[in-house]
Specification:
57% helix, 6 strands, 266 residues, mainly alpha
């Protein structure tokens, strides 16, 4: 009964149950991702040329259409030569998957995957289903854009069809953070920043990413922060940055915290 309630009711309900049981959000989010990852590895239906087939439907189509069979073989076996339709079906609808030096069944993975990060990484690489892709699914599900049914199509394709835009900030320490701050200011000045739906970052890019997120959170107005990001120059003067960016400039020299000719840090 509780399992069904947890699966069907809202995220806030699951979080309340988790708190009552002392089960952190990160743990049940990980379990949800691993469950979906197993579903992707052992699909109930597959998309071929814009159509979704269950196992028996695909078998019938392969047996009736030789040309279609060749296309599926080339796509999934990477070779038009194969021994039988059963071999092709086993490739498309596997009963076991090879990860590392052993094979895992669907039940095996359901049991061991949540506690094995290395296995999660291997299966995600094999299926091209990363945690970030799962998070996009969850967001589209919360927005009511995606029903949760994989037969609706690939979530990235759905997002692309809606015209959603993402920006990625690469790493590189304080130099990357400085460069990415300039990118943010440039996007704000061009009026493009309000149209960015996703911001992905790593390392030094994440420094500016979290700086922007914290600024918006403290200010309470994304529009005001975007306006403040645009350098405003007074006549005859260089542009003066708003206080949050001035603060960032003052305290970002962590590699040489004590500046000056006599400092050992210089």
């Amino acid at each position: 009964m509780l399992r069904r309630e947890l699966q069907e009711r809202s995220e806030s309900f699951r979080e309340q149950v988790g708190k009552a049981c002392g089960y952190p959000r990160s743990s049940w989010w990980l379990e949800l991702y691993c469950r979906r990852l197993v579903e992707v590895a052992f699909p109930a239906a597959v998309e071929v040329e814009g159509r979704f087939f269950h196992r028996d439907e695909l078998r019938k189509a392969l047996e009736e259409d030789r040309e279609f069979l060749q296309k599926v073989a080339t796509r999934d076996l990477k070779d038009s030569e194969f021994s039988s339709v059963n071999e092709l079906l086993q490739k498309v609808f596997p009963s076991r998957v090879e990860l590392g030096d052993r094979y895992y069944s669907k039940e095996d993975l359901r049991t061991v995957l949540p506690s094995n990060p290395k296995l999660q990484h291997r299966l995600a690489a094999r299926t091209y289903f990363t945690p970030s892709k799962w998070l996009v699914e969850q967001e589209m599900l919360a927005r009511g854009v995606w029903s949760g049914d994989p037969s609706c199509g690939d979530i990235y394709r759905i997002v692309a069809d809606r015209g959603l835009t993402g920006v990625s900030f690469s790493g590189g320490g304080i130099r990357s953070a400085t460069f990415n701050l300039g990118v943010l200011q440039g996007l704000a000045q061009l009026g493009l920043l309000p149209h960015v739906d996703y911001l992905s970052s790593v390392s030094g890019g994440g420094y500016i990413h979290e700086f922007l997120a914290g600024w918006i959170l403290q200010d309470g107005s994304q529009a005001k922060v975007i306006e403040d990001l645009i350098p405003q120059a007074e006549p005859g003067c260089l542009p003066r940055a708003p206080e949050p960016i001035q603060w960032l400039k003052r305290y970002s020299s962590y590699l040489t915290p004590a500046r000056g000719i006599f400092s050992t840090d210089t």
